[in-house]
Amino acid sequence: MTTSREPDRSSAGPPAPDTPALGTPAPGRPVRGSTSGRPVMAALDLLGRRWVLRVIWELHRAGAPIGFRDLQRRCDNMSSSVLSTRLAELREAGITASTAHSTWHLTPLGDELVSSMGPLLDWSRTWAERQ
User: Fold this and answer.
1) Are residues 77 and 68 in contact, defined by beta-carbon separation less than 8 angstroms?
2) pLDDT in tens, 33-47
């Protein structure tokens, strides 16, 4: 039984040839918007999922590993099932990790992702000024 509001895809069967693979987006596998599996398309699919960027941002802002409930509070008390799903996807993608004490943090790859968003942040400020 799925408690998440997201569709239960566990028994959906294999995707049709032109349908993205289910699960965590990864380079080399079809994703939403692309059957090529190009790394940039897989990254955009992952980062475009509901709450993913907020989870990454809050882990970055924390600066140290934080517990699940604290992370949930920082994310405006998002549903625990969605947070669990997003953390699992981000862990599978190598962006987050959990410690032996059940706390979460960004991996070095996750830190690189946050740093790489700097130019987008700069662009968004310019865009906002021109609106």
Assistant:
1) no
2) 889 889 999 999 999
Query: Sheet containing 66-67: which strands, arranged edge to edge?
Result: 66-67, 103-106, 96-98
The C-alpha angle with vertex 28 and arms to 7 and 59, in degrees rounded to 5, equals: 60
Let me know the angle formed at the C-alpha of 24 by 9 and 78, rounded to the nearest 5 degrees. Answer: 80
How do residues 79-106 score in pLDDT, each as one tens digit?
999 999 999 999 999 999 999 888 999 9
The strand pair at 66-67 and 96-98 is best described as unpaired
- What whole-number distance in Å separates Cα of residue 56 and Cα of residue 51? 9
- What single-letter DSSP state applies at residue 79? -
Q: Which pLDDT tens digit goes with each residue over 53-82?
A: 999 999 999 999 999 999 999 999 999 999
R_g over Cα of the chain: 16
Bridge partners, 31 (sequence order): 34
The tokens 């475009």 sit on which residue? 48
In the chain, helix, strand, coil percent, each to 5?
45, 10, 45
More confident residue, 15 or 28: 28
